[in-house]
Amino acid sequence: MTHKDLLAVVSQFESPIYVYDAAKIESQYKRLRDAFKKVKQVKINYAVKALSNLSVIKLLNSLGSGMDTVSIQEVKLALEAGVAPGDIIYTPNGVSLAEIEKAAELGVQINIDNLSILEQFGTKHPKTPVCIRINPHVMAGGNTNISVGHIDSKFGISIHQMPHIERIVENTKMTINGIHMHTGSDILDIEVFLYASEILFESATHFSDLEFIDFGSGFKVPYKEGDIETNVEELGKKLSKRFNEFCVSYGKEITLAFEPGKFLVSEAGKFLVQVNVVKQTTSTVFAQVDSGFNHLIRPMLYGSQHEIENISNPNGRERFYSVVGYICETDTFANNRRIAEIREGDILSFSNAGAYCATMASNYNSRYRPAEVLFYNGKPHLIRQRETFEDILRNQVIFDVNA
């Protein structure tokens, strides 16, 4: 998408707005698929939590992707988008047995990450195949909030509790058809990932009916020019060799599965805002925009850095700006960032806005959530309308104190 394309989107649909490039989503999917082309059976399950728009789900499903879901609502979204139940894996954390049973009734693959629910589910539904999420006790991820495979994590069943798992499986006569891990997001060192994979391979030998091993994802994408990213080609070469060796020793071909979210959609997304005010203080020049962390929370929540371009004046002289939002508390997108000269009314474009931006948006300060547009075959298509005041009021029930 060119600057001209993005400016045309703002002209047609106004700002703030999320814009996704379908071509980039497709190329990232094919890149990951091709990295593991030497494995006979590979399944890529898109992590719906990254960007849960129905049109994006349909696009990825058309490419051959299954769906990785973490809630019953995401399961229903995937089904609504036309995804077959058999192409959906449901990997919740800390949910009730009732929710897991609802997902099982819908025919999707169940993935359980604690001993209590494993025993309860296996006792009541021994004929329903289950995947088990293992915690490999490996620290990986770019931020403590997104590192989920370490010893203090709430996710997964500890590898040291394997005897407990085996006892439950033996007592309930349930079938374990998959084993899974997810160490965290923003994997920098593939050797750490491969080390965790060895733990998963060893865990897999405890089960005789496996159909797949799910290695999670968390592959890092670049956030700025020259930024480090996960070398999925090198990972594909090394892990494919090891996986094929495991299949030989296991005695049958099983499926190698991944659940990428950010890797598939992050770089495809742009978030476009308009500059309301350029405010000079005694020490800082603020570019104050028509959005805030209610629409893009990651810089405030994770300290993430999103590249910011002034697409209205891309060739202007670079100056230092702090780009801030309109939320009524500290609301900073970037501090002292070099950006082409910003004027009031200019449109700024935030990169890497495809993952965990729209899905984490809120109505804080009673602001509307933005529209979403999918750029497909050279044309913008509205895939979510901008909210209205009626949406803010919806589901509110007024209590009449005078009644």
UniProtKB/TrEMBL annotation:
Pathway linked to the protein: Amino-acid biosynthesis; L-lysine biosynthesis via DAP pathway; L-lysine from DL-2,6-diaminopimelate: step 1/1
InterPro entries per UniProt: Ala_racemase/Decarboxylase_C, DAP_deCOOHase_LysA, De-COase2_C, De-COase2_N, De-COase2_pyr-phos_BS, Orn/DAP/Arg_de-COase, PLP-binding_barrel
EC number, UniProt record: 4.1.1.20
GO terms classed as biological process: lysine biosynthetic process via diaminopimelate
Keywords: Amino-acid biosynthesis, Decarboxylase, Lyase, Lysine biosynthesis, Pyridoxal phosphate
GO molecular function, one term: pyridoxal phosphate binding
Active-site annotation: 328
Residues that bind substrate: 298, 302, 329, 356
Binding site for pyridoxal 5'-phosphate: 218, 356
Residue span(s) of domain Orn/DAP/Arg decarboxylase 2 C-terminal: 18-354
UniProt modified residues of type N6-(pyridoxal phosphate)lysine: 49
KW Lyase (keyword) present: yes
Keyword flag Lyase: yes
Catalytic activity: meso-2,6-diaminopimelate + H(+) = L-lysine + CO2
Catalytic EC class: lyase
SUPFAM superfamilies for this protein: Alanine racemase C-terminal domain-like (SSF50621), PLP-binding barrel (SSF51419)
Entry cofactors: pyridoxal 5'-phosphate
Residues covered by the Orn/DAP/Arg decarboxylase 2 N-terminal domain: 23-266
NCBIfam families documented for this protein: lysA (TIGR01048)
Complex and partners: Homodimer.
HAMAP family cross-referenced by the UniProt entry: LysA
Role, per record: Specifically catalyzes the decarboxylation of meso-diaminopimelate (meso-DAP) to L-lysine.
Family: Belongs to the Orn/Lys/Arg decarboxylase class-II family. LysA subfamily.
Protein name: Diaminopimelate decarboxylase
